[in-house]
Amino acid sequence: MHLTGEERAMLDGKYGPGVATAMKVQVAIGEAFGAERMVPVSRAHVALSNQEADLWFVEKLVGGGATCRVPPTINPGFNLEYFQEVTSLSEADVEIITRTRRAYKAVGALLTYSCTPYLMDNIPRFGEIVAFSESSATPYVNSVWGARTNREAAQSALCAAVTGRVPEYGLLLDENRRGEVLVEVQAEIEDDFDYRLLGYCLPRKVAYGVPVFVGMPRTPSPEGLMNLGAELNTAGAVPMYHVAGVTPEAPTVEAAFGGGSPKQRVVITREDLQETRDSISKPPGKVDFALFGCPHFTISQVREIARMVERKKLKAELWIMTSSTTLELARRMGLLQIIRSAGGHIVDQTCMDQPCFHHLSGKVGVTESFKCAYYSKRRGMDFIIRSLRECVEAAIRGEAGE
Fold first, then answer.
1. At a CB cut-off of 8 Å and minimum separation 6, what does 387 contact?
2. Which residues in the chain come in under a pLDDT of 70?
3. What does the alpha-carbon distance between residue 350 and residue 375 come to, in Å, rounded to a whole number?
């Protein structure tokens, strides 16, 4: 793989062992995928996990003197100060989040602590080469904004932020961005929850390949496209999709396939979506909590919940995770007070896959996010999956229906 003089200097340790480690990782990735060269990146997003391996790696880079040439936005861990007030945390949990915050500050990250930077804090332009990790972020910037990133790991995205480079392969190249699977959506897509169903359903039929959806609404909401990508990239490894007539690299079906033919054709019906929901969801019944914000909720979603719970009292715990910007908007708009008056929580800087939710282990919740249910399973939580409106109604009643 060809390296410029500057890239070779990074690899050889001119800028310290931390930078050399980052470049070594990237050269290895490039050689594994047959990249011929490195290319510069102008943005990055790191899906930190606040777990041991993630912390070990960033502390290793910091210990080696590395700082980011391209300051990345970063994923949430949990809001330490908030959860210390409302629940109990172990000394180990406090230590790891404290060290994680310290390490990412030292490496020069932008401390946004949100998994949806592509909506307000870190929005790339069409064709821009970036390095994004995070299962909802990668498909959104590729598909909706038309920027170019591979499906980076947290560690490879951090390496890119440190070196300002990525190996040129995969979705950075025109030929790999073309559609491969034609997906005829016969089910009527009526709301943002249907995008989740569609996104989780497709990889159960087709494991790999860039899908091109036809039969979809022409004016989807940002939340709908966010949901689609999040579920595609959770149930499968789908870092990019096209919606004919909607996404920028698919003005037509023919353009989406680059003038070629689909390798595979798939039909998605309403029965497929219903079967997907029923195969993942627990049966209807009593719920102990409702968990939202995977990915982080937008102000529109927060407002929808506030309207439903205004002047009511929740029978189940209700948690909404969102960005710091959206939380501040909710505060200004009076939505935060409405939801708290009903007994709910809105919290920023927090992911549902964190030890701060240990008090929910062994309980049954309700959520509209398959991604949330998937990741929280290992923390002992089970979920009934319904639309957002049905979930909020369940939290008010303490019970989810059919």
1. 191, 193, 368
2. none
3. 14
